[in-house]
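Recall that a protein's primary structure is simply its ordered list of amino acids. Everything else, from secondary elements to tertiary packing, is in principle encoded there. The following example makes that idea concrete.
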Amino acid sequence: MRKAFNLVREYTDEGLDEELAFQLASDQVKEELGKELADCLAYLIKFYNFFGIDLE
């Protein structure tokens, strides 16, 4: 998320409209964000298994 916000700031500093800057930044980080969320899910599942918590 920090990367996306930094990109938006960079783009707006370069003169782009804020909405367009946000769209460009979100397109660039979307794939990386999906990977990070998958990592978080994997860690949560490990945590649940370790402590015997039922996911349902």
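The mean pLDDT is 91. The chain has two helices and no strands.
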